[in-house]
Amino acid sequence: MKNHLNSFYKNKRILITGNSGFKGSWLTIILKEFGANVMGISIGQVSKPNMFNLLKLDKDIIYLKEDIRNFKKIKKKIDKFKPEIIFHLAAKSLVMESYKNPSETISTNVIGSANILEYVRNSNYVKSLIYVTSDKVYENSELNRVFKENDKLGGADPYSSSKAAAECLFTAYYNSYFKNKNVGVATVRSGNVIGGGDWSENRIIPDLIKSIKNKKKLIIRNPNHTRPWQHVLEPLIGYLKLGMKLYKNNKFSGAWNFGPSSKQNLNVRNLVKYMSYKLRVNLNVSLKKNKFKEKKSLKLSSLKAMKQLNWKSCLNLNQTLDLTSDWYKVYLNKKKNKLYNITLNQINLYFKLLNK
User: Fold this and answer.
1) Are 69 and 108 in contact (CB under 8 A)?
2) Cis bond leading into 49, ω under 30°?
3) Which of 27, 68, 175, 355 is the most core-located residue (most Cβ within 10 A)?
């Protein structure tokens, strides 16, 4: 699989929006190692620490430190680069943050996404668009059901609703402009992604690592909430496979789920226990009632991706958590010069496991 993707993406011109984020940083490394020509656009350091900066990923790529909402400012530079494939990851991606700053979340996730769709509409050289939204775009009444791509969209919080709105925009552009255009466009939905290098606010593993580093109490909001955790490499490889398929055949256009199996389910309390054991720390934990509502469970069906893309989730829950803890061990041991190597080693290990 690695050789197949490597040979396809080598020398391709790839634009990644949100390249300095968690997923964007991992995707940048993969594509750099494949030999792709990468341009990244993001507002800069989205967290502190920041994986993109720690690993010095601005080397050997074209990096525009701009807001995706200000598209007139960056259009000329993108035109000059002439991307063949766009991975649109730029977003405000946190539920808790969306409650505090709803207008910022909505404008970024809706207007920013509209700008990318408009760019592709007027482009003669973009062949594939991977338009990243979220598993939270579905109308979730918490009936413990598994969501398929054609299920009803909705959103009970500003983040979820902004991503559902971005999905509606995608559908409008697809039906109005892309059906008869020689371009493959797809929206991809995944969530509960973990792995080394995530420093987002109000996410359980980054909060855990920060509490260890700063020797502070770990605050847990929803200890009994269950999620199907997946390593960041799982959906990213799905995005890359889909990007390749879309480039060759626009019949793969549409919506796609990339989620883990139900065997990956674990509640927050037990996730903290496992990570504490792997990191060999005794955490001082405190429970705090969440004043904002968050869904207790969320599951995706990825049968479409499994059948049509031959995509599969290859890591079990222990492997997912072990890779995550191993990455942060290097960071906590103050071996920052080894972070790029462990990231690359984990990518190579993932491909070996995928090919078994």
Assistant:
1) yes
2) yes
3) 27
Cα(182)–Cα(34) distance, rounded to whole angstroms?
25
Q: Which of 58, 5, 66 is nearest to 29 (CA)?
A: 58
Q: How confident is the model at residue 290 (pLDDT cuts 50, 70, 90)?
A: low
Q: How far is CA 64 from the centre of its chain?
A: 20
Contact 58, 52 (CB under 8 A): yes
- C-alpha 268/C-alpha 286 separation (Å) is 13
pLDDT tens across 127-168, in order?
999 999 999 999 887 767 889 999 999 988 888 999 999 999
- Sorted by sequence, the CB contacts under 8 Å of residue 219 that are 6+ apart come out as 207, 286, 287, 288
* Residue whose structure tokens are 């598994």: 146
Q: How many CB atoms lie within 10 A of CB 293?
A: 10
pLDDT attached to residue 155? 83
For the question of whether the overall pTM of this predicted structure is more than 0.85, the answer is yes
Chain centre to alpha carbon of residue 164: 16
Six-digit token string for 140:
């979730």
Residue pair 78/15 in contact (Cβ under 8 Å)? The answer is yes
Rounded Cα–Cα distance for residues 204 and 184 (Å): 35
Tokens 């955490």 belong to 283
What is the torsional sign of CA 166, 106, 238, 41?
positive
